[in-house]
Amino acid sequence: MAKQLLKDRLKERRDELKERGQLGNIYFLKPDTTVRVRIIGGNSEEEFIKEVTQFYLGPDIKGIISPETLKEPCGIMEAYDELKNSKDDDDKSLAKTFPPRQRFLAFCIIFRDLMGKEVDEQNSPKFILLTGGMYQDIIDLYLDSNDWGDMTDPDNGYDLKLSRVGSGKIDTEYSVSPCKNTLLPKAFRNKKFDLEEELRQIIPSYEETKSIIAKFLNLDEEESPKKGLKKKLLKK
Q1: Residue 145 — pLDDT band, cuts 50, 70, 90?
Q2: Is the pLDDT of residue 4 over 70?
Q3: DSSP states of the chain as a string?
Q4: pTM
Q5: Which CATH number fits domain 2-235: 1.10.4160, 3.40.1350, 3.90.198, 1.10.260?
Q6: How is the chain split into domains, by residue range?
């Protein structure tokens, strides 16, 4: 009975995660758009951009941030490793359909306008997915103490404009542009955020990742990933 209740809860959680992928606890830049944001820092010793491990599990489930990010067990990573290390070439091919990738997340206040006059309260604060190139540009700005420096400073920091031009894997370009120095929006000036705790809010538990990968591989939750291979290949 207890096991069935757990399954029911996990099914509800899985549906919630699917909805997350559509509505988003992570903000994704849409093609040919520019958005103005203010990155929120954590404590003084905490990196303000988080490197995470992500799996993309198709258009239905979409992107899932792995608990591996926090050095915790991940059912998706276990399935990936099992298939990748198999002696069967079909297993290896299946593993290549959902490899882990490193991504970068910045916890941001998001504005409705490019002048920074109106905060998008529905989406603020929220993690924004960055490319490696955008992350490097932000680091360069942070280390440029002569002209820019710490964009997370509540008094002397500044907003960024994040742009995406194009929609394909090859023709898409991303850019980061600094704005003039401004105060942190008033509604956030006295708030403190634990970025690791915020990150935990968007990372599924080990049990949830087991349920998610079972759905992706068309398995019962207790089956080995290899057993779903034929069904998965036939579906594709």
Answers
A1: confident
A2: no
A3: -HHHHHHHHHHHHHHHHHHHHHH-SEE-PPTTEEEEEEEPP-STTS-SEEEEEEEE-HHHH-EEE-GGGGT---HHHHHHHHHHT-S-HHHHHHHTTS--EEEEEEEEEEBSSTTS-SB-GGG-SEEEEE-HHHHHHHHHHHH-TTTT--TT-TTT-EEEEEEEE-SSTTT-EEEEEEEEE-PPPGGGTT----HHHHHHTTS--HHHHHHHHHHHTT--TTS-GGGGHHHHHHH-
A4: 0.76
A5: 3.90.198
A6: 2-235
